[in-house]
């Protein structure tokens, strides 16, 4: 009786584990018929995720530090893309990114990039990744005054010489409005 009960509980556990794993993206394999990824592979994946989070934090910090153009450009691959169209410009290549951001601080002297809700997927080979982040940014314009900016970053990352770099970031603007109009109304900037 006990043995039959244990088998039933074990099968139920495996089914629940499989459902949980599929929902959380841990694995799609049945744990009763396959082996979990090796510890080294799981640790590498966690290290990659943390490195990408740090890369994004450095990007935001460089933007909030008077749009430090050299620091921002250094986070991109040599042929990286920063695409803010249609609200902002599209920039191709590290030098174009550096040149563009060199002039942003004069136009936008205050910016506080607050990114949240990271959704990062590292490719199984570990050399590329995709990420999605929400941005909420109070900022100011030299011409228009205080502003609200909200957007979604759609990022592609590539590992170059063992370090993660931004291959492309696309900024999908939800709203960019004057502070006094709030984020639900008023004229878009």
Describe the structure.
Strands 1, 2, 3, 4, 5, 6 and 7 form a seven-stranded mixed β-sheet that branches. A hairpin with a 6-residue loop joins β1 (76-83) and β2 (90-92). The N and C termini lie far apart (72 Å). Residues 1-7 have low confidence and may be disordered. This protein has one domain (38-181): Nuclear Transport Factor 2, Chain: A (Roll). It is α+β, with helices and mostly antiparallel strands and 189 residues long. It has helices spanning 2-24, 39-64, 69-74, 94-101, 104-107, and strands at 76-83, 90-92, 110-111, 114-122, 128-141, 145-160, 163-178.
Secondary structure layout plus pairing:
Elements: H1 2-24, H2 39-64, H3 69-74, E1 76-83, E2 90-92, H4 94-101, H5 104-107, E3 110-111, E4 114-122, E5 128-141, E6 145-160, E7 163-178
Parallel strand pairs: 1-7
Antiparallel strand pairs: 1-2, 3-5, 4-5, 5-6, 6-7
Key attributes of the depicted protein:
single chain, 189 residues, alpha+beta, Nuclear Transport Factor 2, Chain: A, 7-stranded mixed sheet, 36% strand, disordered N terminus
